[in-house]
Amino acid sequence: YPGLYIVATPIGNLGDLSARALAVLKACVAVACEDTRVTGKLLHHAGIKQRLIRYDDHADGSVRERLLAMATQEAVALVSDAGTPLISDPGYKLVREARERGIAVVSVPGPSALIVALTLSGLPTDRFLFGGFLPVKDKARRDVLGELGAVRATLVFYETSPRLLDALAAIEAVLPGREVAVARELTKKFEECRSGSVAELTDHYTSHPPKGEIVLIIAPPGEASTDDLDIDALLQAELA
Ligand code: SAM
């Protein structure tokens, strides 16, 4: 059927490409992607030959126009390098315009690193706030942590390994005592999700410099780790 198909792809383990994703990627007339080499490899692995069209929300509108024109006649798939398109990845403008023009938009759901990390973290999942990538500059990063840290929700951020220690230092400065989890290499061979105080995680990742992609998860206010509680003051109050 004609339309724009938002197709999630694996974030590491190729076994996570769904049967429905495979069927759509095979049947569509073209696949819009961030990087034709990355998507080319995935499709090659799946035994699919497809027309690949590089798409980026920020590029001039002509590629978008072409994709939308195609989607009125046939099925066009949108994928990103990994995970769910539009989630810290291109696609928002394409979906918005497709909807405005009455073109069918269909989701073919699958992995997203933020959900995988949240479910592994052991932190509350009933209410969470996804903050996208933490800013690179320290002042901006601290501002975001200050603003979102006041919200009663678990916070989820995307991060890169070279910036992890700086991000942990900013968390300790702005949100002292919060329990944190670092999820790395999700669905891959060396998947890990390590949680604890910022001091514990900083110690660990100073002696074991992290590699690969990272999701940072921060406990909501009031979920402070016991390190942060003034045990003496609590005991005094109890005894008084
Ligand atoms: N759209 C993707 C999704 O749905 O997860 C996210 C794309 S964003 C450009 C890339 C970021 O996602 C990485 O910097 C990292 O924070 C996170 N990420 C993606 N794959 C990951 C993995 N296998 N393990 C940990 N984090 C991952």
TrEMBL record:
EC number per UniProt: 2.1.1.198
Role description: Catalyzes the 2'-O-methylation of the ribose of cytidine 1402 (C1402) in 16S rRNA.
Source organism: Croceicoccus ponticola
Entry similarity comment: Belongs to the methyltransferase superfamily. RsmI family.
GO terms, molecular function: rRNA (cytosine-2'-O-)-methyltransferase activity
Catalytic activity: cytidine(1402) in 16S rRNA + S-adenosyl-L-methionine = 2'-O-methylcytidine(1402) in 16S rRNA + S-adenosyl-L-homocysteine + H(+)
Subcellular location: Cytoplasm
Domain Tetrapyrrole methylase: 4-201
Protein name per UniProt: Ribosomal RNA small subunit methyltransferase I
Gene Ontology cellular-component terms listed: cytoplasm
Covered residues, full protein: 15 to 254 of 284
Keywords: Cytoplasm, Methyltransferase, rRNA processing, S-adenosyl-L-methionine, Transferase
